Amino acid sequence: MTALFTDDDHQLLLDLLNLPSVNPLEAGPDDPPSRLPDLLGRYAAAAADAGFRTVRLSPAPPGCLERPAVPATVRAAARDPRFLAGQPSLLLRLGPERDRADTVMFNVHLDTVAGHEPPAFDGSRFTGRGAVDAKGPAVALLAGLRAAASHPAVGRDVTVLVQAVAGEEGGALGTYGTRPLLEAGHHGRLNVFCEPTGLRALPRATASMTARITVRGEDAVDDRPDAGHNATVLLGFLAQHLAARLDGAVPGARVCLAGLHTGRTHNRVHGTGTLLVNLSYRTTADGRRLKDAVSRHVTDGLRRFTGLFASTQEFARTARDAARITALGWDKHGLPALDNRDAWAEELLARAGARPADGDPGFTCDAIWAAGLDGAFTTVLGPGDLAANRAHAPGEFVDLADLEAFAGVVRRLVTRFAQDRRTPA
């Protein structure tokens, strides 16, 4: 059988891996500047060879960041006009603009986390930042679509859209990449978000929120620790309190306490500091419950801290002022979660070779913005595995065999969609 993932695709993937595209919200001092515009131009040129036309290649309008649920970190970064200007998104189309019932859409992000690494290919495995998340899936998608385009109905009777977006990583969560494109109507009856799922078709995506607990007190010299506010002790107590109270507070939710910082010196009391709490949830209603739980348990934790430390020698002032100097804020909240069902679409995915989700709760990705789309079904589907393939970690890789398998699923999915499309019940 002729391979779908050709030598030209090998070179395209290596080219994309060589072009750094670290999201600015992630970039560290050792990361090279992002060349995402160049990368998207290279991808668009390869798509043109498969018959795709570039509908748009441009940054999102600044007004999109004034919408609800945009993370505070994104709003802050966008005060520099270069932030959005350097992160355009690409929309490709095969065939004319059609009704959604006759359109299938694929979304893939081409920004990455920090840690750009020199790419390599050993004949069976690609390594480099973005290999599995998600430059490898992006090239395999194009290989599958190129093969599907040979079917006479693809492009003639049905239209294929491809969103190649910025702004998925760094906690941006699609607010200036995927969200504006979907809200402009660029989606279909079937929408596929290309993320590493082991070729399982996940009909759901969790959303996440980030709480920021801030202590703003007064420092003190180590010879008089009682004279200041000890943010280290206060935030450390709250971290343990929240870990115990939030674990299992909302079924299916996951809690990550991280980013505890007060200072780096040993000979002073640090009066200021922050604690970050990241929480994922399966449904929008669960997100509201989780947010209420965080607020309630922070208040309870401060009360417990005051009672426990009020009579101590070194921490009595911190205990007395704990509620006054501590504030709970939200870097992001109010994001929707995706959880949809469609017997026809799920059967179509299965016949194309996608594996069933088998109760997998999914993970957070841009697919959340497809929640509630009328007359549409959305799935998360792609090659590899986030953990096993070391996404977001040194040594990220994807195997050629997995890319070939995904290209085959894409080809079969699009051709079967063209042959057996249905309007939703």
Helix-strand blueprint:
Layout (H helix, E strand, L loop, with lengths): L6 H12 L17 H14 L3 E6 L13 H6 L4 H4 L3 E6 L8 E7 L10 E2 L3 E3 L3 H18 L10 E7 L12 H6 L6 E4 L10 E2 L1 E10 L3 E2 L9 H16 L7 E8 L6 E2 L2 E10 L2 H26 L6 H10 E7 L5 E2 L3 H9 L25 E4 L16 E3 H21 L5
Parallel strand pairs: 3-6, 3-7, 7-16
Antiparallel strand pairs: 1-2, 2-6, 4-5, 5-17, 8-15, 9-13, 9-14, 10-12, 11-13
Helix pairs in contact: 1-5, 5-11, 7-8, 8-9
Which range best describes the helical content: under 10%, 10-25%, 25-40%, 40-55%, 55-70% or over 70%?
25-40%
How many whole angstroms does the radius of gyration measure? 24 Å
Structural class assignment: alpha+beta
Mean pLDDT: 95
Distance between the termini: 38 Å
In spatial order, strands of the major sheet run 1-2-6-3-7-16
How many strands in all?
17
Number of helical segments with 4 or more residues: 11
Give the biggest beta sheet: 6 strands, mixed
- Which geometry do the CA atoms define? elongated
Low-pLDDT runs of 5+ residues are: none
Relative strand content: 15-25%
H/E element string? HHEHHEEEEHEHEEEEHEEEHHEEHEEH
